[in-house]
Amino acid sequence: MANDKFQNKYRISSARLQSWDYASDGAYFITICTKERMNYFGEIEKGKMKFSPIGAIADVLWCEIENHAKNVELGHFVVMPNHVHGIILLNGNGSGTNGAYDLNHTNDVETRQPPLRTIGIQRFQNQGKNSVSSIIGGYKSAVTKHANRLGFEFGWQSRFYDHIIRDAQSFENISHYIVNNPDNWEKDKFCG
């Protein structure tokens, strides 16, 4: 990623797809890592996640996302020692699927031409209400606030990873990956 200037200051370019509206209805596979991939959330023992106090906070607060954001459903998720994987489903924001997996399963992909002016340019200054970025930002903030309030050392990586789920097979594969992540921890790229 290139560093760009905004208001005469360097900034790191967004990791988000610039032609995509992240408030669009659809399914999103999210990965959020801890700072320096520290195992703040616990450890894997015999294929099962054993939560630390911060891991328990991260687990409970992920379940709370539906209570704090509109038009959101949660798919499978897992809190691992140094990251969280989860599927967030936006349904009802009124912006169409924009090519993402149709949550109503009436079709796999709806095609739409990307706008001439990228949505990412607009998103830089305003991440939007009920967008993937605002939801994940709220989640990260809540976990950090509660960990700090209880006196735990904790930090997140500054960014998160997303994958726009485009069809039923991808949705199924990602759900399977999330559910089986603790069993496959030794082979996980985040293990270490």
Give the secondary structure arrangement, pairings included.
Layout: E1 3-6, E2 9-12, E3 26-34, E4 42-45, E5 48-51, H1 53-63, H2 65-68, E6 72-79, E7 83-90, H3 119-125, H4 132-149, E8 156-165, H5 168-180
Model description:
- It is a single chain.
- The protein has 192 residues and is α+β, with helices and mostly antiparallel strands.
- It has helices spanning 53-63, 65-68, 119-125, 132-149, 168-180, and strands at residues 3-6, 9-12, 26-34, 42-45, 48-51, 72-79, 83-90, 156-165.
- It has a four-stranded antiparallel sheet with strand order 6-7-3-8, with helices on both faces. A two-stranded antiparallel ribbon has the order 1-2. It has a two-stranded antiparallel ribbon with strand order 4-5.
- It is globular.
- The two termini are 25 Å apart.
- 29% of the residues are buried.
- Mean pLDDT is 79; it is low at 10-20 and 105-127.
Please sum up the structure shown:
The chain contains 5 helices and 8 strands. The protein has helices at 53-63, 65-68, 119-125, 132-149, 168-180, and strands spanning 3-6, 9-12, 26-34, 42-45, 48-51, 72-79, 83-90, 156-165. The strands form 3 sheets. The protein has a 4-stranded antiparallel sheet, sandwiched between helices.
